[in-house]
Design brief:
By secondary structure, this protein is an alpha+beta fold. Helix content is 25%, strand content 22%.
Amino acid sequence: RHMPLPGAPLRAIPLNPQASALISDIDRAARKLATRGIVAGQSRLMIDHRRCTACALCLSGCVYNAIYSTEEEFDLLRKNKRIGYRGGVFVESLDEQAGRVKVTFRDLSSGEMSRNTFDRVFVAAGAIGSTALMLSSLRMYDQTVDIADSQKFLVPFMRFRRSRAATDAPGITLASAFIDIAPDSLSPHWTHLQLTPINPMVLEYLGIGPDPARGRTKKALLAPLLDRLMVGWGGLHSDLSGHLSIRMSAPTQRDRSGALRLEVHRSRGATKAAKAAIAKYRRIGLAIGGLVPPLGVQIAEPGAGNHFGGSMPMKATPKTASETDILGRLGGYSRAHIVDSSVFPAIAATTIMLPSMANAYRIAREAPLDD
C-alpha cells in the first residue's frame, strides 16, 4: 500500500530511449516468447515518480531519495516514537531464559558490555551478520556453515536498432526489463536476466566521463556502438551456483567477539550452467531486437551479487543445529526468530528483496507474541 512498486507511475518518468525501444520489442514478442517458457516485460521498479528527475544517475546513488529505501520508514517510526532505536552497539549474543530473551551487547565507543531482556527478538542482520550472531549465541565455534548464493553473470547486449544520443538522454538507468526462462530439460530451475540501459557507470568504465571533457573523442567515435549497448545482469538458482562458507573461532582476550572467516567455493557446474543460460539468452536476444556478442561476458565469483542466504534454512522438521523451523527459530530458541534471507531453503535466480520482506512479515505476524 505504501511502497512505490507498481509500474504505472513510471509512465510519468522519461525512460532512456534504449529502454523504451527494448520494451516495445519485448511487448511485440511476448506471446511468441511465452510459448517457449519465457516470461519477459518491463521491470517493476521501486521509484517514487514524484521525486525522480530522470537524471540517469540511478546506479551512482540517488541524491533525491527517489529509489525506495527503508531508511525513511525507520526515521518516521522513530520520530513518532513507535520504535526505540539504539545505535553504536554490537550485539554479541542472544540467550533465552525463563521465557525471555537476553541480548548481550557491547558499546563500540567505550567497550562496555550491557544486557537487556525482551519478550521476543527478531534478527535481521543480513545473511552474514545473522549467521555470525547465531553461531556466537550457540557457541558453535570452529564449525563451518554453508551460505547459498545465486551466482551472477554479466553480458553485453547490442541492439540492432540505434537509439541516438542514448548516452546523453535523461531517464531511469535501473533495469529496464526482466527476462526469466522457465525450467526445462537442461535446467531444473528458472534463470533470470535484467537489461539495463547505457549509463554513466558503464561510460566511466570505458574511460568516458564523468568530467564531460574526459573521453569526448572516444565517445564521439563509439557513439554508433554506445547508442546500441545495454548491459545484461543474470542470475542462477543456488542449486546451480558456487557458495560461501562461514566459520567463527572462539573469543580470545585479543578478539572478544571471535574471528569470522568467510570462504568462496567455486563450482565448475556453475560455470557450465551460466554458459548454458547465456546461450539461451543469445537466442532470445534475436527475438527482441539484439544480440549477445561473444566478447565481454563475465561470470562473477560466488557472493558478488549480494543475493545469498540459506545458512539456517527453514524446515518443516529441523534436523540439524543450523536448521530453523518455519518461524525462523533455531533449536533451543522459542522466542528468537531469524527473519532475513538466512532462513531461505534456497536462493532463487531472481531478485530476493521482496520475498525477504514478505517472509519477515509472515514470521512477525505468525509469531505467538502473547504467550
